[in-house]
Design brief:
This protein has 13 helices and 2 strands. By secondary structure, it is mainly α. The protein has 2 domains: 120 residues, Helix-hairpin-Helix base-excision DNA repair enzymes (C-terminal) (Endonuclease Iii, domain 2, Orthogonal Bundle), CATH 1.10.1670; 101 residues, Hypothetical protein, domain 2 (Endonuclease III, domain 1, Orthogonal Bundle), CATH 1.10.340.30. The protein has a two-stranded antiparallel sheet with strand order 1-2. The N terminus and C terminus are likely disordered.
Length: 252
């Protein structure tokens, strides 16, 4: 017989902006304790390498990108070399990351624009980065926050969309609106780290298909958590929030 499940204690509905901000601060505090080494998972040595890696990471795992980029950077160590790259040769190097033709085209065009318009240096502003071929706001946020230490916005990926929805930190599904909501309740100094924290938590505990609610440090802050009576008494079970989690997207 399947044990009955109950919802974990949750914050009341209809929290004010100030209340939601306070809850977001507590979410970040707990996640920082749980993941003290949270950082960008992509390997890079400079802004150019991070920009290339981030473009390659679209619809691809960070682990796969980190396997591919050493050979890319060895052959194209800077924007000037990449700007002169043969697209077929570049495609061969990055093929395993998926969508390699579009990515190769964007990488070459991006490098050409960096050389022609920015003297071969990766720009440091949202407007300039966003104007480069293949660079959207998400990619620009990654580069600004992690390569330059500039908190211009919040990187919103699949994990961030799913977890902030489950936590009711936003009621939107659109990445642009989610970022806007989060920027209102999260301190600017945490805009870069919060994405890394949520991504790590989404991979380790709040897994889309098999969430481990009974082990979650955010258990009593999450309106979507569902735990068994046993899990409610003892932390460390393998709880499931079933449809409530699956409704917010597949694990990536």
């Amino acid at each position: 017989m399947t044990p009955s499940r109950r919802r974990a204690a949750t914050p009341r509905k209809g929290l004010s902006l100030a209340g939601n901000r306070e809850r977001a601060l507590e979410v970040i505090r707990r996640l920082k304790q749980a993941y003290p080494d949270a950082a960008c998972a992509l390997h890079f040595k400079d802004p150019y390498q991070l920009l290339v890696a981030t473009i390659l990471s679209a619809q691809c795992t960070d682990a796969r990108v980190n396997m591919v980029t050493p050979s890319v950077f060895a052959k194209y160590p800077d924007p000037a070399h990449l700007a002169r790259a043969s697209q077929p040769a570049l495609e061969k190097l990055i093929q395993s990351t998926g969508f390699f033709r579009n990515k190769a085209r964007n990488l070459v065009a991006m490098a050409q624009a960096v050389v022609a318009e920015h003297g071969g240096r990766i720009p440091r502003t949202m407007e300039e980065l966003h104007s480069l071929p293949g660079v959207g706001r998400k990619t620009a946020n990654v580069v600004l926050g992690n390569a330059f230490g500039i908190n211009e916005g919040i990187t919103v990926d699949t994990h961030v969309i799913r977890l902030t929805g489950l936590l009711r930190l936003t009621r939107h599904a659109d990445a642009v609106r989610i970022e806007r909501d989060l920027m209102e309740i999260i301190p600017r100094e945490d805009w870069t780290i919060v994405s890394h924290l949520l991504i790590l938590h989404g991979r380790a505990v709040c897994i889309a298909r098999r969430p481990r609610c009974g082990e979650c440090v955010l258990l009593n802050l999450c309106p979507s958590a569902i735990v068994t009576p046993t899990q409610g008494r003892k932390r460390g079970g393998t709880g499931s929030s079933g449809a409530a989690h699956r409704a917010h997207g597949k694990e990536v």
